[in-house]
Amino acid sequence: MYPQAHQEPHGSGIGARLNWLRAAVLGANDGVVSTAGLVVGVAGATGDRGALLTAGLAGLLAGSMSMAAGEYVSVSTQRDSEQAALATEKQELQEAPEAELVELTGLLEGKGLSRDVAREAALQLTERDALRAHAVVELGINPDDLTNPWHAAGASFLAFTVGALLPLLAIVLPPAPLRLTVTVLAVLAALALTGWWSARLGDAAVGRAVLRNMCGGAVAMGVTYAAGALLGAAGV
Ligand SMILES: [Zn+2]
User: Fold this and answer.
1) Which of 55, 116, 132, 155 counts the highest number of beta carbons within 10 A?
2) Ligand 1 ion: Cβ-proximal residues, 5 Å cutoff
């Protein structure tokens, strides 16, 4: 309801923060799994450190930019439609203020207020800031808190990069004979952490989420390693 939402300065504060956190964890998880699959696959074919570094770095950049571009497009589209809805609302308020007052009264009644109270509340809200009231009650958006597509893109880029750096460093830094072991262990540990964190954020069963996440990463590394080893053995 509008009066409650108004007490919270940033509208959907907690929900928005949770969404950001969830997106960050998922982005980091994505960076870990896809880069791990890539470098382990290359390691199946060659022991050349330069090749591993090149593949890992290219995967990191390609993945983080693809994530950022996707996020930018999706948030821009959402923002465009929110701004279009606000513009329509503004016009309706100018052209038919009485009909909009009736509409707002009806919406507040629908939230459980009696007709008289709803009418009084609608009058007060309209007097204070009509557009804001309609944005929050009717459209469910906070006009002061539209997501910035550049922020969303930057956050995705950063989250993926942080995740991707782990398998990249784990495959490049250790001496050759330890490379794969270190990478697999580091990746499984990281996936246990992101699985645990996203389960906590989503109020899901932690044990199963961790196991599922680690299995996903293990399968990805197993498949790409096998493919790399086959190609390497065939001398491609
Ligand atoms: Zn309206």
Assistant:
1) 55
2) 100, 103, 134, 138
